[in-house]
Amino acid sequence: MRPTIPNSVLLGLMWTGTQDEDLSPEALRHECNMDDETHGPTWKDYDPRIGGTQYVQDTTNQLDITTHFVRLPYGNVGDWAVRVKGVPRRDAPANLESTMVVYASLEHNAKHGESELYCSTSDGKAVNCHGHSPGLDEFQLTVQDTTINLGSNADRSSLLHSVFATEDQAWNAKSIFLDAVQGKKDSSNDALRGKENVHFIVRSYKGAFEFDIEYTNSTSSRSHSSNLITSTIKTSHKHHQKRMADVFKFSQTYEGRQYQDFAQSMVSNLLAGIGFFHGDNIVDMSQAPEYDEQGLKFWQTAADARERAIPHGQAPASLLSMTSSRTSSPHGMLGDEGFHLLVLMDWDMDLALDIVRGWLNLMDEDGWIASDQILGAEARSTGPSDTVQYPHLASPPTIFMVVEAIVDVISAGGGASLGAYSASLENPMEANHIISELYYLLKRHYAWFRRTQHGGKGQYAREDAVGYRWRGRTPGQCAASGMDDHPRPEPPHPGELHVDAISWVASMAKSLKRIAQYLGDDIEVATFAKHETTLMEDLNTLHWSRINKAYCDATVADDQHKLICHKGYVSLIPFALGLLGTNHPHLPYILTMLQDERTLSSPHGIRSLSASSPLACSTKHCHYRGPVSLNTNYLLLLRLLELSLSPGPHAQKAAEIYVPLRHNLIKTVFTSWRETGTAWKHYDAESGEGLGSPGWTGWTALVVKIMCMPDLKREQNPPDWRVDEDVEER
């Protein structure tokens, strides 16, 4: 854990059941992994402003660990404590030996004494660390056993290892510790004496144990007793339960205790994934002409250009961001962040605003934001194999729908979204200032997206219609779209156009129009309304297949525009993003797709690809060729609910799809959570088994918002409204 201050203090916990001389990287637990031998970490409850309780089940070391993190009352606003409790598992010997390692390090090697950290022990048991750092001033860190009866642990003492590490390695506590205890790092080096900036507090135990880690600011008026920490833990748990009840009003079907525990776990683990990142992002600024991907086999020439390029680290930046998964993707991802924020803004609007502003402030002068914010050496150590970012690659601009949702909250007349009070939005002038600031940046990103993902105009017998395509396409992959392996036209072609790319552009125009309405800018309302209308005309002209009754990607064959149809999430994006009105002529066909078990309907949600497609599969390596994802299903449910509640020709059919789909999604995620203890990135459309990355409480936490949707029942027959003629296929 670290404060939201760059180059500051970093704290953490490691443990093992192995003695020092036998230590190996595998034996020492530190990283946040969810494998067959370690179940967790899982948060029972968590609020960044209050604290929470986390569980880890380590079957290899035969130890169950519970950590309680709490903000402490009566002292400085920054005071906190962590209680660590270890209990041998049922199959462990009663005198199980365990070694716990608490570490504290300074990420910045101070000059002129501006930062300092030193630790000592006077009685061989409690360890006190004192330090000061810019932004934190003076602070004290204490590690000591609690007052409970520790039995054979009563006389245990602490060992203290203090070593020096360079700034670029101070985060790498596990490697530094292994080197120190195995004699590879000489802490007695006279040149480094007094400069130690990484301190390891080692406690060995037999059987059960419990100890506290307490952080206090120098301005604290009192020390905090073990009893106070105990009472604060209890208060924190009660607070979280009350907040859940106040914020998320579940429909009657899902008011049971088991669903409340499930929802609390989903929200807590989503909130626990918020991280503060600081460092340089590695970017290829070569602007190679091959990156515009205009020639045949452009993916090969683009790959050659990447080989020639020399990426460089950019100026260090900071970002407070949510993460899709603490275990598999512990960094900020632009295309996912909007889905995370839809849940967070219900819980803590001010924190959501901080994160939105942080992301948009990373935008460069052209309007580009790196899709993956892999900031610094620590983030790169756990990031994807290729951490280089490219200024010609885009991501689904999901943050637009978040800012639009925030505007809707303000317009509704409250400084709160559900139960989340917002000090920032309560004041109309402050709210207007914030939205104006975000609007300016969103417009810049919109212009960048249209310019860089443009599909050409007047080419391949397309007359004046304008399409869009994701850059970065390779055979079998379209990673920038967020639906990497969803089938596309093959082989890739420079004249290719993507349904979801133009749909996201239209969605951005729609959001900007709504924000301009809130700000009272009638000229820009008219501008973006015209953009939206033109984009929708081009979407229908370029992508609607009269033969397949679906929106389809386009390619070029014999210099002619040709549609390639793979019914799935790509086909549904125009509907999912709310671009089709309640009487749109294509709605009957889209609703039929959603209801048809031979195509997209399944017992566990809407499939990412039609079951009848020869490219469909359901293994853990198939992401968007069959499995169910909560983010797209959530958007589909929103549209179905809107249709169900709107007078029109499709209300009854929309309700008939909405009711079982909502129930199946909740049941699928809940059942899997009960069996595995975690959320997953995708779910098998036939079995409901979790697929992909475990611990994916990013967009999967949207299930909590789905539980708050109404238990809709619609039996009456709607009026017989006329449906317009189909749009001709080109």
Automatic annotation (TrEMBL):
- For this protein, the Enzyme Commission number is 3.2.1.106
KW Cell division (keyword) present: no
Keyword annotations for this protein, in alphabetical order, are: Endoplasmic reticulum, Glycoprotein, Glycosidase, Hydrolase, Membrane, Signal-anchor, Transmembrane, Transmembrane helix
Pathway(s): Glycan metabolism; N-glycan degradation
Q: Where in the cell is it found?
A: Endoplasmic reticulum membrane
Which PANTHER family does this UniProt record tie to the protein? MANNOSYL-OLIGOSACCHARIDE GLUCOSIDASE
Q: State the name under which the record lists this protein.
A: Mannosyl-oligosaccharide glucosidase
Q: Which organism is it from?
A: Zasmidium cellare ATCC 36951
Lineage, broadest ranks = Eukaryota, Fungi, Dikarya, Ascomycota, Pezizomycotina
